[in-house]
Design brief:
Radius of gyration: 30 Å
Oligomer: single chain
CATH class of the largest domain: Mainly Beta
Strand order of the largest sheet: 1-8-7-6-2-3-4-5
Number of helices: 17
Number of domains: 3
Strand content: 5-15%
Mean pLDDT: 90
Structural class: alpha+beta
CATH topology of the largest domain: Hypothetical Protein Pfu-838710-001
Helix content: 40-55%
CATH architecture of the largest domain: Beta Barrel
Amino acid sequence: MNVLQDSSFTFKQETDDDSVFELLCRKYLQHKVIDAQLERQYLDSFDWRLYRNNLVCGFDRLNSSTHKQHNTQKGIFFVVDKKTGASICEFPVNRIPRFSDDITQQTCRKLLNELLGIRALITVASSAVKRRQLNILNQENKTILILRTESYTLTEQTDKHHYFSRLTVSPVKGYRKTFKQVRQYLIDQLKLPIAGKAMFDEILAASNKIPGPGVFTACQTLNDTHNTGEAVRILLHQFLEVMQANEPGLRDAIDTEFLHDYRVAVRRTRTLLGQIKHIFPAKQLDYFKREFLWLGQITGPTRDLDIYLLKFDDYRQELPKGMQNHLAPFQEFLERHWQIEHTLLRRKLDSKRYQKLIDKLHHILEDKDSSAQYTRLKRIAPQDTVNATKPARIVAGKILWKLYKQVLKEGKAITPQSPDEDLHELRKSCKKFRYLIEFFQDYYPSKSIKMLLKLLKALQDNLGDFQDLCIQTTQLNHFAEQMQQEGLANTQTLMAMGVLVEKLNVRKMSTRAEFEHRFNAFTQPDSKEPFSDLFKPQHQPKGITI
């Protein structure tokens, strides 16, 4: 037997909900009415992870003006299925949880942790809700059906007043017949239209909120009509949008992913400027390369401390149980220095130097007449901009092939005796190669690109893990010395950190030993052939400088 789901109906006018409610009360004399006024905050991550999984999450607080007897700091945290409206979890909380780990209800914590990871919950919309609930009773005063009218008024600043109202009929187990009868009465007699989409979607639309699909998503695809200058401008514009979308969150330290995604956009910008040559005049290019290098440097210390704090529980687990609590001073040290570095970062983002960089980038991207722009540049700096008017597909293909050969050359030169720096250089080449593939993936079959990125990722993961372990083992020793100088480390803490470094060194050697296997898999004929098929030039176009 199918499980009955809630049915929702809409009202055509603001007065309809009260009228229908009174009519239902007269029809079903055996009933109980519960009135409430709520302040509702809808919650999701910055990148809409819950919405993209058809979940609606929120926090309801009783309106203090009408419920003075209640503690207004408390409320109800809920998660419902967006498609069906069915409740997944609902429980009282003293405050809105910031992260999934802050939720004490185990089932809900597990569900949200799988979807949110380290992303914070933020308010994406808010509304005032007037709720009237009608519980239909039988002769034994037992509830056999629940009808609920809810009217929503946006509390955010919008261009005009928005008012929504819904009637929801919720079945009670064991009373299917009553549910079907009342539902049919609403449709046939009262002529109420069935709700076509979720209330949350209507609220988002009225609030001008558009749930985004992710952080790095091409809002404009590349095609064969684009020359290289146009393609670079499109990509730079996308990276700038990601930076500016994440900047408020990194300033307010909502969660660590804002700074991470901001830095990824900065790295992508640096890769594009460094690899796609002869698009901008040399003086202009040097300025942007220098300033984006600076931007990477000033955001680095805060991000590094983010990573150590995120890994802190893993560090504890690396140690014997008797030593785990000895790392507490180290955690305090990391948190204190994170506050210092984050304050310095905010000051630098407030600087005239940073604003000048963003303004200059906006200026070169706002010129819509790209053909006139590059005609002008060709006249001013012909050698510097020789690739600007060349087809983007051809220029990108040559650069991708060059990077692929560079990765093969650097990887083949690495032996068990090679210094760690050689693997670091290969890692940087792989990252540039992957970025360029992602930048220009519109020019290649998506199935092939996914396969190539998968092959490349397997190698990159090994190189990335190795580099992280190299940095951590060195940095942890530096932190220990710094804590001694600041008088924050006792003997037990220093011993625990020493044991941790030893364990990380063992993992580092194991990861290094795995490299040869990973690189051999990357260079197998079956792996090399797809790269050659896609990127190896069939002929050498003239006039392209890389």
